[in-house]
Amino acid sequence: xxxxxxxxxxxxxxxxxxxxxxxxxxxxxxxxxxxxxxxxxxxxxxxxxxxxxxxxxxxxxxxxxxxxxxxxxxxxxxxxxxxxxxxxxxxxxxxxxxxxxxxxxxxxxxxxxxxxxxxxxxxxxxxxxxxxxxxxxxxxxxxxxxxxxxxxxxxxxxxxxxxxxxxxxxxxxxxxxxxxxxxxxxxxxxxxxxxxxxxxxxxxxxxxxxxxxxxxxxxxxxxxxxxxxxxxxxxxxxxxxxxxxxxxxxxxxxxxxxxxxxxxxxxxxxxxxxxxxxxxxxxxxxxxxxxxxxxxx
Length: 297
Prior knowledge:
27% helix; Rossmann fold; 8 helices; Ribonucleotide Reductase Protein R1, domain 1; single chain; 25% strand; six-stranded mixed β-sheet; CATH 2.40.50.140; globular; alpha/beta
């Protein structure tokens, strides 16, 4: 009698799908029906695997996804561990805001990790930490110490939750993963100093057991496309704007030239960071132009 069992796809290699189940990891092939449906199972998918007595295992169903992010893609992501480097490549508030906007749009929480603090000049590091304290104030957990991250992270990852690393190339995602999951053994690369960005070193997505859930390593990318966000919904992806907008005169306030705008009032008072507002305006322009600015490509 054929048995069916539910599990999570933890890796995809040459057409084989490794699925973590209550019986352990099972290697399977996907049924041709997925091609007909124009579906492709992804790492992170909750799936149904059919087992038989000959050991021929087939992935027969993909359960509904709550999201899909990344290149290559990861499905059902609960939280992003966003790795931002202090130096090599240099820390950028604009890049940080782009990532946070993208994941807010995808309705995925973000925890920020500042990497390479050990090679950052002291005065520069103090300034970066001061800037990151604003993000803690508006609700983003921030780690600037690797040892503290390793100590606290297992408690943050709930049962079967999927976390994925993200951040610009060369920020140290694979190096961090090696520290968190010793058997991960992901390749790490050298920085391309001429471009002030790293070379992509991760070649495939794989989930690693960590805490009560999983961590995925994905290829780094140095920018995210935001032009598909609806222009009148962008402000909701800036959490402090969304909170403040309840006091704006107009419900549909875009925080531009409208009178009695609470967001602009708080920017002027220094309670909302000027850099966040400036980045909001830049992203609005990008959406209007329907393309990423050349300087971010």
